[in-house]
Amino acid sequence: MFNRFALLALVALIALSACSSAPTPAPVTSPNQDTYVSANLDTSYQGALSARNQLALGTLQLDGTATAITATQAKTLLTLWQALRGTTQSGASAQAEVSALLGQIEGALTADQLAAIKALKLTQTSFQQWAAANGIATGTGGGQPGGGQGLSPEARATRQASEGRTGQSGSGTSTAVISAVITYLEKIAQ
Q1: Has residue 3 been placed in a domain?
Q2: Is residue 171 part of a domain?
Q3: Which domain holds residue 68?
Q4: Total domain count for the chain?
Q5: Could you read off the pLDDT tens digit of each residue along the chain, which spans 190 residues?
Q6: Using CA atoms, how far apart are residues 140 and 169, in angstroms rounded to an integer?
């Protein structure tokens, strides 16, 4: 009886030590740090948007074209964009996780859609024009330091939007365009 108990305790101890030794991924310090490299989109030209923002704004700009998102694609893309928004808003997302989601988003688009987005040559200026046309204030990063502490990411974003600010340089606009993509995809997926 004692041997069986000792053996069971030893197995449990080994199992627990194996679980606790796994390293945790390093969090990204800023949700606006885009290190994702796309095999399909060019980010090397003057003023180019990050691949993430090219995918988001480009998806919106495909609407009404021959390469618009289909209802079937919208269902897949909706889940991916929602996951991306959730991970980036948490503030503790690993860049590998963000990159994997962006890769899946690209994988859900056709070669023609990716080529059309690339051909748009989206820039910071086009991003700011989209934001202005949609009533989104860009860029001061002002506000009371610590004013968003204790708020959920959604409540913080709502407060920033109501005050006409975007938080860290461009991250609020990036979140706004991702939210616009999600709203757009929800309409198509129905």
Answers
A1: no
A2: yes
A3: 50-139+150-190
A4: 1
A5: 545 544 444 444 454 444 444 333 333 333 444 689 999 999 999 999 999 999 999 999 999 999 999 999 999 999 999 999 988 887 766 888 999 999 999 999 999 999 999 999 999 999 999 989 988 876 654 444 444 555 555 555 555 444 444 333 346 778 899 999 999 999 999 8
A6: 7
